[in-house]
Sequence to fold (251 residues):
Amino acid sequence: VAAEAWLEETLDYIRNINPRILGLSVFSIQQHRSIWRLTNAVRQRFPHIKIVLGGLGLNVGCSSLSTEPGFRKIDLIKPFHQYAKEKGLTDHIVLGQALDELIAIMETEIGPATHSQKFESDGTIFSTPIPNYDDYKLDQYLWNEDKYLPVTGSKGCVRDCTFCDVPGQFGRFKYRTGKDIAGEIIHLHEKYGVKIFEFTDNLVNGSLKAFREWLVVLAEYNDRKPADKKIRWFGQYICRPQAQTPKDIYE
Fold:
C-alpha cells in the first residue's frame, strides 16, 4: 500500500512539472524495484518524457526483482542497465563521467548548451557551467543547521593507491582553475545566500597552483565581509611533504 501511494504521489509530481527529461539515480540494488515500477509507469502515462538512468546500481544484476511478475531467469542475471535498455524503460544510460555524459544528453535532446564543458589540449584542465539551484528547497540541505551546497574543483586523484577505485572511475586527474572555482562559489553565495560549501573532490589540493589561487580569492573576498557573511568550506585534503606545503597556505 505504501509503495503504491509513493508511486502515485511521484507520478503526480512528474505530471505537474511535465519535464522533457527525467533523470533517476540508481544508487544501489535497493533502488531497483522502485525504479522498475516508476519507469514502467512513466512509459505508460508520459511516453513523451525521455528517461535517463545513472548510478552504480545499474551495474548490479536484477536478482532484486525475482519476485516481480513476468521476469525470466535469464533477465535476473543481467545488469540492471542492460535489462532497462532492452525493455525500453530508459532512453539514456550514464555509466561513466556523469557531468560529461549529461551535458551530451541534454544537447542531444534539447539543443546545444550555452556553456559546454571544454577540455584544454593537455586534457588536465576543465571548466563547467555554474549550477542553477532555483528550484531547490535549499533550507532542506543543511550542514550544522546552515544551508550548504556542493562544488567540484577536480576529478580523480594524483595518487594511485592499490586499495582505491578512484583511478578506475575517473581516469587521469583533471582540475579547474582556481579562478573558475572561486567564481562559482562566490556567485552561488551571492545568489542564494549560502555560506558553506562542500567540495566533492577526492582531494582539494591535487593541484597546488589551483588550490592556492582559489584560497587567495576567497580569503580576499572574506576580508571584506563581516563574520556572519564569510564563506566557509570543507572537503578532503591530501597530506603532502612539508616542502610542498608552504605555511602561508594555512593562513
Summary: Helices lie at 2-17, 32-45, 73-76, 80-86, 98-109, 166-170, 178-192, 208-223.
